[in-house]
Write a structure and sequence with these properties.
single chain, about 675 residues, mainly alpha, Hypothetical protein af1432, 3 domains, 4-stranded mixed β-sheet, two-stranded antiparallel sheet, elongated
Length: about 675
């Protein structure tokens, strides 16, 4: 059933936005359902052709045919037929200017036969412009000088025109053989007006070359419908690979014609929505038990960001996907959340990347194994040594997994791509960015890292100093609770550092009225002059006071939650019973004597509640024996359980027993219980 309250609408919106961002990268083609490789065995059933298709020529053979066309194809040039008119007019002007500057007595034949000289120059220009003149630098290919395809007046012909240099030499010879005495006067005038009228036509050349290439047959042979393409367990030779590749091309073309791309897009959308939906369902309880929507945004950001990074690297073409440091995600996530959240997010991230980018089994297995190693080995992020050890193990997992997959696929190490190990090394170095990312993301999203907790655990912090001065008994109680809770957390694999620090701060609210609490009382008991209801109210108020102080000190939210839940909804039994004994007064309601809660939900909150009550109770024991301690621990835990304080807790029965035994063991050490040995009779 779909829920429509404000929080759930926000969840749906965030999920929709995530899927929308991912949809921009959905492939726009059809995925082929077979994976195969030359030299391997066809591991599917007999493949029968469902339709006719041609067997494609090998890429190398096609490339050779294309190269042959490129080498033999003549570039296309066009001749500017309009240029000759302008050149002739320019020559006429030059000739007349030159004629006017000559000495008439010296060049009398030129003046007498000026028309003959002018016509000689014009006819010479028309002769060579008709054949065509080109500039050496304008040739698309030097070989075109020996013959080119020329477009002249919409007619295509193969010719060998002259360059400007060759034209100049030919004009010199023509003038030298002329009957006119001063024909040489025309040479500089003609040379000055010569410009190329043959121009390279790149657009037509490319178009005609493509037409020639399109004439090449792409196929060689045919597979008819119902014909066997490849048999089951057949070793894939080059010929069979060519058949399969040809079938893939024909299949994808046929499918793309039969089905609209929006249907393919819809398929990706449904799978992506399913992945994101399952992920949100798995993390729902942990993320939303305190309505932390930003936690979901943070987790989904890792998925979106790494999908886009993968797309960018894949589009680049020069980098391998093995260079991408996916393991940064689980390392950072584990710092702020638990192993389960880190694992769920990482699996969702890798599966989404594999879906959107159409990556196969090898990618998924290698990345999931490396990420699992990152989660399992990265226990203490705040120390360099274990962090480096985790990084090295991640690199080792990449190397071993890739080696194993290669041996399985190839049956030998000859085809191992050693270059991938270079990518793995770079990947591991990039994973080290997780360390500086932690404080940055902590500040941006308001999370709490182990580094921050370690700083808060310093008992010389001003707020803890103040607690030790105003309520020394409470401070000592907090130290003992920290030791007891930390040991239990380590026993069950909970966050021991968070528990220790939270234990130090859980009773800071007692600083307001420290004399009300028995551990701080030396002489007078102020409760003797107070009604039971008033005493209970002021005792219970230390939780709200603690929350207010914690918020004022800007303590992390999970520590504030620990303060809220360390008494759950338990009742202040002493004052409740005192109220019942005052028969002359009206008996107060049960709610007046109960802490507001909430009940503990996380394992850490549950352990703190038990450790707080057990430590306080054991202090009331006079010279306790082992049996006394065991009985007190069991009694406190059973009482909390009967009152329903663990109803929301994630602590399992087995973990509860481990914590119970840890409490007993630590308390025995605190009270210095020793085994009594029989006195020997000398």
């Amino acid at each position: 059933m779909i829920r429509y309250d404000k929080k759930y609408i926000l969840i749906y919106a965030i999920a929709g936005l995530t899927i929308g961002l991912l949809s921009f990268l959905f492939p726009d083609n059809i995925s082929y359902k077979f994976e195969y490789e030359e030299g391997k065995v066809w591991r599917y059933e007999d493949l029968i052709a469902p339709f006719d298709f041609g067997i494609m020529k090998p890429a190398r053979e096609l490339q050779e045919e294309y190269s042959a066309i490129d080498s033999l194809f003549r570039s296309h040039y066009i001749k500017d037929g309009e240029l000759i008119s302008a050149v002739v007019r320019s020559f006429e002007d030059s000739f007349l200017k030159t004629l006017n500057s000559l000495d008439r007595s010296q060049y009398k034949p030129v003046f007498d036969h000026s028309d003959a000289y002018l016509n000689l120059g014009k006819s010479t220009l028309r002769k060579y412009y008709s054949a065509g003149i080109y500039h050496e630098d304008s040739l698309a290919n030097p070989a075109d000088a020996q013959g080119m395809t020329l477009i002249d007046d919409h007619q295509i012909k193969t010719t060998r025109p002259l360059s400007i240099k060759e034209t100049s030499e030919e004009i010199r010879r023509d003038l030298a053989s002329s009957d006119l005495d001063f024909a040489g006067l025309l040479y500089p005038l003609l040379l000055r007006n010569i410009s190329p009228n043959i121009i390279y036509d790149e657009e037509r050349t490319d178009r005609m070359r493509k037409i020639e290439k399109d004439k090449i047959a792409l196929t060689r042979g045919k597979i008819s419908r119902g014909e066997l393409i490849v048999a089951e367990d057949a070793v894939l030779t080059k010929e069979l690979i060519q058949r399969l590749d040809s079938y893939q091309i024909a299949y994808e073309q046929r499918i793309s014609q039969d089905k609209s791309l929006w249907i393919v897009w819809l398929g990706y959308l449904l799978l992506c929505a399913l992945l994101i939906g399952i992920f949100i369902y798995l993390v729902f309880e942990q993320v939303f038990e305190r309505a932390r929507i930003k936690d979901l945004v943070f987790m989904l950001l890792w998925i979106v960001v790494f999908v886009y990074i993968t797309w960018l690297v894949d589009s680049n073409g020069t980098l391998s996907l093995y260079i991408i440091p996916y393991c940064i995600a689980p390392i950072v996530l584990k710092t702020f959340f638990d192993n389960q959240i880190a694992f769920y997010t990482y699996v969702a991230m890798i599966l989404t990347i594999a879906l959107v980018m159409s990556l196969g089994f090898e990618f998924i297995l290698i990345q999931l194994l490396a990420g699992t190693v990152a989660i399992a080995t990265n226990r203490v992020t705040r120390y360099w040594t274990p962090f480096f050890q985790s990084i090295l193990l991640i690199g080792l997992s990449y190397a071993v997994c890739y080696l194993g997959l290669t041996v399985i696929k190839e049956g030998n190490l000859q085809n191992l791509i050693w270059k991938n190990y270079i990518w793995f090394v770079v990947n591991v170095l990039l994973v080290m960015l997780a360390y500086p990312l932690v404080p940055l993301l902590e500040r941006i999203f308001g999370f709490t890292s182990a580094i921050t907790l370690a700083e808060l655990g310093d008992v010389n912090k001003p707020i803890l100093k103040e607690l030790s001065l105003k309520a020394p008994g409470t401070f000592q109680h907090s130290l003992q609770v920290a030791n007891i809770a930390e040991a239990a957390a380590e026993e069950i694999g909970a966050d021991s550092l968070l528990l220790r620090v939270s234990a130090l701060y859980h009773d800071v609210g007692k600083m307001k009225e420290p004399e009300l609490f028995v551990e701080n009382q030396s002489n007078e008991n102020p409760h003797k002059s107070l009604a039971p209801e008033e005493s209970a109210r002021r005792i219970i108020a230390h939780v709200a006071e603690g929350v207010a102080i914690a918020k004022k000190q800007r303590l992390p939210r999970n520590i504030v939650d620990m303060i809220k839940t360390h008494h759950g909804t338990t009742r202040v039994e002493y004052f409740y019973n005192a109220s019942l004994e005052q028969e002359s007064l009206e008996v107060a309601t049960d709610d007046q004597f109960r802490y507001p809660g909430p009940k503990p939900r996380s394992k850490e909150e549950t352990i703190l509640m038990m450790a707080d009550s057990i430590e306080a109770a054991c202090k009331s024991l006079k010279s306790p024996s082992e049996e006394d301690i065991n009985s007190m621990v069991d009694q406190i835990i059973s009482g909390k359980e009967r009152s329903g304080q663990f109803s929301d807790s994630k602590l399992s029965y087995h973990e509860m027993q481990l914590a119970r035994n840890s409490f007993k063991k630590v308390l025995k050490g605190i009270y210095h219980l020793r085994i009594e040995y029989p006195v020997s009779q000398a």
